[in-house]
Design a protein that fits this description.
With about 120 residues, the protein is α+β, with helices and mostly antiparallel strands. The chain has helices at about 25-30, 35-50, 95-115, and strands at about 10-15, 20-25, 55, 60, 75-80, 85-90. It starts with 9 loop residues before the first strand and ends in an 8-residue tail after the last helix.
């Protein structure tokens, strides 16, 4: 077993050179984060806006929109039982928080695109 330093990043590949995971180098991962407090406030607002939380052990996790549902997915997701894609956000989430979270997710995607092989994208 080898411990990987997050400063340099890492990639795990199987024998056919497909990536199992990519660990983006630390500097690249945090370089674009300029409004950390705003992003954290937006994440807290998302946590408060969702249906409810469920306790499992000592962790609080984003849980369900309904009693028998699974985890909540925000943003684009498949339209289950029909064609197309839904843009799904909790109704209680304010527009400014949604905008900040979309910006954050877009920045994460841009960073990841620089480290994931183009054929795997």
């Amino acid at each position: 077993m080898r411990v990987v330093d997050t400063v340099n990043g890492a990639r795990m590949e199987v024998s056919n050179e497909e990536s199992i995971f990519v660990l983006v180098p630390r500097r690249a991962a945090i370089e674009q984060l300029k409004k950390v407090n705003t992003t954290l406030l937006s994440m807290r607002a998302l946590d408060k806006a969702k249906g409810f939380t469920e306790k499992r052990g000592n962790k609080r996790i984003t849980a369900t929109e309904g009693i028998n549902s699974n985890y909540v997915t925000v943003g684009l997701k498949p339209n289950r039982g029909s064609h197309g894609i839904l843009d799904s956000w909790p109704h209680k989430l304010g527009a400014k928080y949604k905008k900040q979270l979309l910006k954050f997710m877009s920045q994460c995607q841009e960073v990841a695109n620089g480290y994931i092989k183009s054929k795997e994208l």
